[in-house]
Amino acid sequence: MTDEKFEQFLKRAGQGYNAPPARIPREEMWDAIRAARSAGPRVVYGGASHLRGERRFAGKIWWAAAAALLLVASGIGIGRWTASSDAPSATAARPTSSDKAIARSSDPIRDDGPRPPGSDAAPTAPSAVRATPLIEPRSRLAAGDRGTGVALRATGSPPSRDRSTDPAGAGRTPPRGAPSSAYELAEVNHLSEAEALLTSFRTRSAGDQQQDARLAAWARELLSNTRLLLDSPVAEDPKRRPLLQDLELLLVQIVQLSPGSPPQDREIVEKTLQQDQLMTKLRTAIPAGQRGS
Amino acid sequence: MQLAAYESRSPVHDLQLITRVVAGDAAAERELYETYVDRIYRLAFRLAGDEELARDFTQATFIRAFEKIGSFRGESSLSTWLHSIGVSVALNGLRKTKRLKSRELPIEEGLTVGSTRVDAEPDLKERMAKAIESLSEKYRMVFLMHDVEGYTHEEISGTLRIPVGTSKSHLFQARSKLRVALADFAPEWVS
Known about the structure:
heterodimer, A: 293 residues, mainly alpha, rod-shaped, B: mainly alpha, Rna Polymerase Sigma Factor, Chain: A
């Protein structure tokens, strides 16, 4: 009973709360509605109209497209700018004979030809060099010259320091006259392979003509690389150049040995090897831990 | 007269009216407006308490309704659909105006700072207004629609998109709070 009375009280008292006027301005509101609808952009109270929303969406698309274009253009610009700043190294990166020497000496497994016994101990190129895209194709080119006995002479300036092979030295400029890490690496690999060849030569079995032929082929290849290294910045080092020259002489002698050559010729080669102490020099020149690796 | 026109509406009539409005019949638009404008305006005024805001809300409700009437699928009655637009427009608009007003210090409030306000005899209308405004939005909406404007719980349910039971529960809660707030006037409903 009390609840019903309270409800009636509330309904009665509530009528006074924000009581609307007796006259509702229908015509004025209708005129305003018609004006708003005929104005084109459909303005909605407190919110954007559909048309405005579509325009905003279209605007967003244009902004996004413009931003994407700007981003791409900036990327291209930065790329070109960095490329132009590295232009000297890019020019030097053209395939030169010196690079071929690097490629050859750093890719010992590319040769499908005969291998002397014990050649398993020959050093393999570090993956950093083998993975370098600029060197790999050149090694393929160099492979075409193999066996011709013609040493290619360096004609271009030495390539700049290859950052991919020297992460620690990235950005550093090597001193003038000092070979880059890539050349040093190639030289070490080459010397290791030469050591393996000479070891095989000394331990070869007498009278094995097949083995002699394989050794001669191997020596020819190493001779070619030795001559290329002699034309590279590596040879500017006063300690390395005589070593490479001695090696060249010995390799020439081994190459000139025919499979059926008399034992006296071989003794001459072995004598040269001992007199020059070439094996000792080679082992000294190869840093510890890289021999036969 | 207008309320009578509203009460005599049938769903078939509404459907025909909608079809005509969608086809671009100006007379149908006017008919729809005339049928529902009073209820929409009254509710807007109850919520806003301001003539200008009530007009703005009502106009915006019909403008939006005419824009969206093509997407009306008849899942609810035209009245419910229109009222839900009206309530949405009014509540959003009130939230915005409330934010704007909250940034300003009312003059009366500024003048009474530091002074003791003495109300000799509490006025029922004023106390009622304060009590209603102290209700949360959901309770106030249901109370105003049901007890003040005479909407049914089904209509409230459709308009506010709440279950009928929730509408009833909200009304009960609103009344309970108002009973406490208006306890001084108990003799008026007890006697």
